[in-house]
Amino acid sequence: MQQQTSIVSANGQPSPVETLPYGYEGSYDSGASVFDLRQLVAIIRANLVLIAVMIAASLATAAVITLLQTPAFTARATLQINDQSVQILGKQDDIAQEQVTSPSDSERFLQTQMDILGSNAIAERVALKLRLVGNQKFFDAMGIRKQLADLTPAELKESTIEALLRGKDATLPRNSRIVTVGFTSTVPALAARIANTWADEYIQANLQRRYDSSAYAREFISGQLNDARAKLELSERELNAYARQAGLIRTHDAGNNQNRDSGSGSSITTASLLQLNVQANQAQAARITAEERWRSMSSGPLLSSPEVLANSAISNLLAQRSVSSADLERERARHLEDYPSVVQLKAQLASIDAQVQSVARNIRASVKQAYDSAKDAEQALNQQVLSLKSSSLAEQDRLVQYNLLAREADTNRTVHDGLLQRYKELNASAGISSSNIAIIDRAESPTKPSSPDLVKNLAIALFAGTALAGIIVFLRNQLDDAVRIPEDIDAKLNMPLLGVIPLAKAADIDTMMKDPKSAVSEAYNSLRSSLLYSSANGLPKTLLITSSLPAEGKSTTSLALAAGFARLGRKVVLLDVDLRRPAIHRLLGAPGFDNGYGMSSLLTSQGSIDEALKPTEHENLTVITAGPVPPSPTELLSSGRVEQILEELSGRFDVVILDSPPVLGLADAPLMAALVEGVILVVKSDRSRRGSLKSSLRRLRSMHTNILGGVLTMFDASDNSNGYSEYYGYNYYQYSAKTDV
Fold first, then answer.
1. What is the reported pTM?
2. Minimum mean pLDDT among 33-47, 79-93, 245-259, 584-598: which range?
3. What are the sequence ranges of the domains in the chain?
4. What DSSP state is assigned to residue 87?
């Protein structure tokens, strides 16, 4: 037996499905073939009529639909969408400046705006703004044929929104902030009006969302403000109640607004204490001053006291005394002591001295009285200060709780004032901002219809028709399990192709096989050459030629191969082992081939091999015909006699070729395939089904046979209907009717 390349399965046995003939580099596991552009062109040529019909039907359908459509007009408005907007009211620090965002954030923001632009909420605003709900003219313009009277208000609203969304078209070019908002309708003015209203309502909805976004904050602050007001009122009431209970009367500093507003200040007791303390200090100072005056006056002569000397009356009296004393000295100088003028002046001088003493004593008495009064006042004030100090200390103990309540009231007042201020600011500035969306171009009534577009529809129809035709051709090619072309042997059967035999008339086969220049002879010569190198040792010594079904050309192929090897000088014996429908003796058609003694005779041991061998007109070619048809060919072929015959013939001949019956439905071919070195499967073009062929291959490989490959017979490459004539280059062969032999 010849060498063969095989893959061992998991159980240690060679896998018949994966047995590869010598020189074949394909894979039986995958039927995928390398993409071949010429083969694709051939498939297109084979289905050219179908493709043309599909494309023509698509174009005609598109043209008819286009002509039957009502012209529609599209109006477009353009908007610019920015990231941020600025507040109109508020402090300078509160103005929102444009922020630098990452490209991904900007892209998400723009996509979000596009989703909002196409939302049901915007469509509902447009419908309400233009009063389109239940508007018969709008439904007619949108091509909607509904009985509006039969619809409920909810259904009318839903239908209107659906029509608006169906007619709306919003696009945002990449790397741009300019959005185009379009609307399509059969009425140009309505399309422009809706497009402009859509843009306006989108801007208004954007501003409304901003206003509504602060509503929660306002409601929250309003609730907090009410709570703060209630807490402030309660804390002030508790503060007043405690002050009334403790007998605390608080005063406010008129010049200190903070103390006045916060409720803090001093009590009357403290204020009185402070006032009396000031007065006591003043009284003490006055007493010290009076005491010093008194001490100064009482410690020295009366007339040496500054208080006396500073008195105007004393000054006048002393001036008079000086005058009187001067007059007295002059009189004494002229008169005696008892002189009346001298006596008079003495009496006058004594009167003045008495007056001076009287006034000085009065001054000293007034100083003493002032000192006593200051001392008494100081003592009285000190007593009052001591009394108020004890009262103030007792009051401070009561002020501890009062101050706690006062601080709580002050905190509540601060919170209340802050919330009130923030609430007023929110109410003043809520939603008042410049829009970050601006209209660049408003929509105008279009003058030319946007649809139907005949060129566009035809282009789409051309593409759709081509795609549909391609799908149909692909499915047709995939679902077609017939073996039509040589590539199908490998692609559909996972089996190498050994040769392709062109189609010829049955009457011309013998003539063409005898003509070495004929296409049939050349094809069989090519097959013969393939078999010469089909294994590692060259041509197998025993060959079985079979087919899946009858009438596929296996007998003709067997005879042609036997004759071809004989012409090469090989000693060849051809065995007709088709014991049911033998054909070799008919194909030879020469005297002596009456099929009276042959293979069936040898299997029943009725004669020798030499008696069964019949020479032919071909040199080196000997034939053993089938012999008489036995009642049970399978039993004969399953006996050990076949193996003995093949062994003896292999020793006497170079090549032993067996023409076996078909594989399907019979056990003959698989039984004999296990006894030979190589098996050739003949496949008729455009007839054999892939399912039956694969079943045949499975049966053969189950016997661990060496399948060399397949031969495609009766291939009509000149038939332009299959699209492969130019692909295979057989146009110069002109063949006619097909034959079954």
1. 0.47
2. 245-259
3. 70-214+435-441, 267-394, 495-502+516-709
4. B
Q: What's the CA dihedral at 225, 230, 235, 237 to 10 degrees?
A: 140
- Do 565 and 572 touch, CB atoms closer than 8 A? yes
Nearest to 78 by CA among 438, 435, 441: 441
Q: If you compute the radius of gyration of the chain from its CA atoms, what whole number of angstroms results?
A: 67
- Phi and psi angles of residue 622, each rounded to the nearest 5 degrees, phi first: -120, 145
Q: Which residues contact 553 (CB under 8 A, 6 or more apart)?
A: 501, 547, 682, 684, 713, 714, 741
Within 10 A of 632 (CB to CB), how many other CB atoms are there? 9
Class of 495-502+516-709 in CATH: alpha beta
> Which residues are within 8 A (CB) of 6 and not within 5 positions of it... i.e. 6 or more apart?
14, 15, 18, 19, 20
Q: Cα separation of 40 and 49, whole Å?
A: 15
Q: Where are the alpha helices (DSSP H) in 299-339?
A: 306-309, 312-334
Position 56 pLDDT exceeds 90: yes
CA distance 40 to 724: 10
The count of C-alpha atoms lying within 13 angstroms of the C-alpha of 618, restricted to the half-sphere facing its C-beta, is: 23
Q: How far is CA 731 from CA 37, 398, 507, 727, in A?
A: 20, 128, 21, 9
**70-214+435-441: which CATH number, 3.90.660, 3.90.25, 3.30.450, 3.30.1890?**
3.30.1890
Place of tokens 């994966």: 18
**Which of 113-122, 236-245, 255-264, 661-670 has the lowest average pLDDT?**
255-264
* Residue 245 pLDDT exceeds 60: yes
CA 58 – CA 464 distance, rounded (Å): 7
Q: Which range has the top average pLDDT, 208-212, 518-522, 642-646, 734-738?
A: 642-646
- Upper half-sphere CA count for residue 697 (Cβ side, 13 Å): 27
Residue 48: C-alpha distances to residues 458, 597, 725 (Å): 20, 55, 14
By the 8 A CB rule, do 531 and 562 touch?
A: no
> Taking the C-alpha atoms of 701, 702, 705 and 707 in order, what is their torsion angle to the nearest 10 degrees?
-10
Q: How far apart are CA 625 and CA 559, in angstroms?
A: 12
Q: Confidence band (pLDDT; 50, 70, 90) for 739?
A: very low
Instruction: Give 183's strand partners.
Output: 75, 168
**Please, are residues 704 and 735 in contact by the beta-carbon 8 Å criterion?**
no
Look at the alpha carbons of 55, 57, 61, 63 in this order and tell me if their dihedral is positive or negative.
Answer: positive
Is the pLDDT at 215 greater than 80, yes or no? no
Assess whether pLDDT exceeds 90 at residue 463: yes
**Using an 8 Å Cβ cutoff, are 591 and 690 in contact?**
no
Band of pLDDT at residue 255, cut at 50, 70 and 90? very low
Q: What is the pLDDT of residues 366-386, one digit of tens each?
A: 777 887 888 888 788 888 777
Q: What is the mean pLDDT of residues 50-78?
A: 89
Question: What pLDDT is attached to residue 431?
Answer: 52
